[in-house]
Amino acid sequence: MSGSIREKYPGVWQVRYAIGRDPVTGELRRLSKNVKGTKREAQKVLNAMIAEADAGRLLATSSATFRDLTERWLNMNKRNQSPTTQRTYRNLLENRVYPALGNRQVSSIQSIDLDNLYDGLVDRFELSHSTVRQIHAIIRRSMRQAVLWGWIANNPAINATPPRQEKADLTPPDPDEVSQLLRAAYERDEQFGNFIRVAATTGARRGEICALYWDNLDFKNATLTIENSIIEVPGGLRRKDTKTHASRSIALGKSTMEVFEAQRRNAEERAALVGESVRGDSYMFSHEPDGHKPWTPGNVTHKFAEIKRELGYHNMRLHDLRHFAATEMMAGGLPVRTVSGRLGHANPATTLSVYSHFVKASDQEAAGFMDDRVSVATSAPDKKTSAKKHQPSKKNSARSKR
């Protein structure tokens, strides 16, 4: 980067300073100021511009649009974001953000523009608060990258005001509904019944169950390791890390182990019919005799939807079986850390945040328990303690003798 001074008119000096190339056009960007006075005064202005540039405070206006920024930001993050996340972000940008801001220069976007966008998405398009907050997160992170690249001086999303987070109204199915669901699933397809049973007892996510290999099951110690998930991408399926990028091992009850044993026998019988065998890296839930290809998560959801409609459970989702497992464990008094570990949450705080209102019943039981404990302690005081309570202290006795 370099600067120059030239006398534009008598007594008027033009100070120019080059500050890199435009990220879109590739042209050299310059800042220009007119200074009235002497050449020495113009030199002082140039020196000040150089000092501000060195400190990172001097920026030239870029012609980059918001679409240019987000496209580059998304491409940069391909390795760090799953294909599902990338697809979701692109859909939100294309359908909800670009119509308003796509062709705007990044440097021209202000906090009020973002607030107007958020208000319109809620009021006119009736998007949920959580969706708008997700859009805000995309804008905030991409704008932060623009700051780091030197395209803009400040991130306008920092001072924007997205709608408040709405508390999710969870309505997990009760045990009777889950029993009817299981009965209907087994009547239609034994393998699908096993899938639903595993989902209800482990609380595992749909994609996590689809991704289970037989090597993930320890028959001897009755434990299941969940370390991957299956997602749908353009052109097929992809195996990826879990949502938290961490594996977990959970214990299995006797009846759940029997489900896995039945599923294994089923798989071996199908494989034997065509001269194949079930290996450790065969998928537990597969339509292929050798289990080389997993069930598609979307097909699982579609089959679940058919069964729930037959039962009249129109508002129930497959993911609600995860909520069912969580709330039943919480209601059973299991430690939050244990529930969090089985669900695969990043930390117990996440579990409490999602299921806090289901802890109220346990909290009420705790209140009654403590009332009973304190009542027992106060209703039958120790005889010796009671006797001492009525005996005068030595100090009081001495005072009485006086």
Account of the protein in words:
The chain has 402 residues and is mainly alpha-helical. It folds into three domains: 52 residues, no CATH class; 84 residues, Orthogonal Bundle (DNA polymerase, domain 1), CATH 1.10.150.130; 182 residues, hpI Integrase, Chain A (Orthogonal Bundle). The chain contains 16 helices and eight strands. Strands 1-2-3 form a three-stranded antiparallel beta sheet, covered by helices on one side. Strands 4-5-8 form a three-stranded antiparallel beta sheet, with no helix packed on it. The chain has a two-stranded antiparallel sheet with strand order 6-7. Strand 2 and strand 3 form a beta hairpin. Helix 2 runs antiparallel to helix 3, helix 7 packs across helix 11 and helix 12 packs across helix 13. The longest helix is centred in the middle third of the chain and has 21 residues. The chain is elongated and about 95 Å long. The chain starts with a strand and ends with a helix.
